[in-house]
Specification:
This protein has helices at about 10-20, 35-50, 55-65, 70-90, 90-105, 110-125, 130-150, 150-165, 170-185, 190-205, 210-225, 230-240, 240-260, 260-270, 275-290, 295-305, 310-325, 330-335, 345-360, 365-370, 375-380, 385-390, 395-400, 410-430. With about 450 residues, it is mainly α.
């Protein structure tokens, strides 16, 4: 296996030959296209073999979403099985999460009435839970689904979540739950969100000092970043553990960048510490890469220069985010940066992120990068999306890559990714023919 740091031009050539099959088999132009019906059949077979009921329910819902446009009776069966699997999960909280996930997929289909019925059922079940923490968290998770289906019910669920969060006896858990509600409410009702965030602060300060308290600050700064960036920085600067401080700052920068990229760029530049400023810039750069790759590259290189002497707890994530930001515009530079990440597990995770960012532009290189990892189990989550982009140009080669994926849920997603590419392209070529849902 090639280590991620050894990616010289000659190595890229060798890896690309292996990844694409050029010179050892059929080219994409002459290889037979996978049959969409067979891909759905293979995906169904894999989904039904998934041992975890939660994962099986999720896979069947993904399958049903594609079958809706192609085979209505088969879609009916897949939706029914997904709902049954979700309901059969033994742990009550896990079952409710699984049922919500099915409702979310239904909301993306043409079955809005079924989606609303499913979401309302989950809502009632959550309200009946005896533990306040469970009610608060699950209502927050249900909120985005209800926003699509029933905005009034979504507003009600968020208020119920805040009420439940305030009843949690443990200060750190209460702080985290209140902050989650505040983050969701920040855009629609900033005044109420600020009040909730202040209550979260009070609960957090009540907790005994220590690493657990410091790590719990992540949710607080994630909410405050949307409401008051300076306050988010004050909490971050109070943290003594470097890793907790880095985690909190990344959460704040990610949250603000997702809401407003321009605001986030200005905000992270106000950070007084050069090391934390570098991490903030890199985090925002990674968020900007998809829509503004040139700006992302400038921010990433600026961040990397400032982080050269930073401790590994800050330098590693800075390099990881910087590499992801550069993956689209400078793939060789991005891949070479991975070798600078000291922590082996962090490097493997960053490899997956860089491959995901690289895939829409150069899927062959993304495939080669994933194959170069010394930790295939750590990068496996990236395969379905990378396979999708590979299938856009080489569907038969992408279908062969599905064998790289061992975990059955991810393998099901990989098969559906090839289907999305094949059926989506067929639909574009022949508009009368139904196609799949592209990612």
């Amino acid at each position: 296996m090639w280590p991620a740091r050894v990616l010289e031009p000659l190595a890229w050539v060798c890896l690309l030959v292996v990844a694409t099959g050029f010179g050892v088999g059929l080219s994409p132009a002459t290889a037979q296209q996978p049959d969409p019906t067979e891909l759905l059949s293979d995906a169904r077979r894999e989904a039904l073999r998934i041992p975890s009921l939660q994962s099986r329910a999720a896979a069947l819902a993904e399958l049903a979403l594609r079958l809706d446009d192609r085979d209505r009776p088969a879609a009916d069966e897949a939706w029914q099985r997904a709902r049954e699997c979700a309901s059969a999960v033994e742990d009550v909280v896990s079952s409710l999460r699984s049922r919500r996930a099915v409702a979310e997929r239904l909301a993306q289909s043409q079955r809005r009435n079924m989606a609303l019925t499913q979401a309302q059922s989950v809502h009632r079940s959550v309200l009946a839970l005896p533990v306040a923490c469970h009610r608060a968290v699950l209502l927050c998770e249900l909120y985005p689904v209800l926003q699509i289906l029933d905005p009034a019910a979504a507003t009600q669920a968020l208020a119920q979540s805040a009420e439940a969060a305030a009843q949690i006896p443990e200060p750190l858990v209460r702080a985290s739950a209140l902050a989650q509600v505040a983050k969701l409410q920040a855009e629609t009702d900033p005044k109420a969100a600020t009040s909730l965030a202040q209550s979260a602060d009070q609960a957090w300060y009540l907790a005994e000092k220590g690493l657990e308290r410091e790590l719990a600050a992540t949710e607080l700064v994630r909410a405050w970043a949307l409401l008051d960036w300076e306050h988010a920085l004050i909490i971050t600067q109070e943290l003594e553990d470097v890793q907790a401080k880095a985690q909190a700052l990344r959460a704040a920068a990610e949250g603000l960048a997702a809401a407003s990229l321009d605001r986030a760029i200005m905000a992270v530049r106000t950070i007084s510490s050069p090391e934390l400023r570098a991490l903030g810039l890199a985090t925002v750069a990674a968020e900007a890469a998809a829509e503004r790759p040139e700006l992302a590259a400038l921010l990433a290189r600026d961040a990397l220069r400032q982080a050269e002497q930073a401790p590994s707890a800050i330098k590693d994530p800075t390099v990881a985010y910087g590499a992801a930001a550069l993956a689209a515009s400078a793939p060789e530079e991005a891949a070479a940066l991975l070798g600078q990440i000291a922590d082996e597990i962090a490097r493997a995770r960053a490899t997956a992120d860089v491959a995901l960012a690289m895939a829409p532009h150069q899927p062959d290189r993304a495939v080669a990068l994933l194959r170069s990892s010394d930790h295939p189990e750590m990068i496996e989550r990236a395969w379905p999306e990378v396979i999708y982009w590979q299938a856009r140009t080489d569907a038969s080669g992408a279908r062969a890559l599905v064998a790289q994926v061992l975990e059955r849920y991810l393998k099901t997603k990989a098969l559906l990714a090839v289907y999305d590419a094949v059926a989506g392209q067929a639909s574009a070529d022949t508009p009368a023919q139904p196609g799949g849902t592209e990612q």
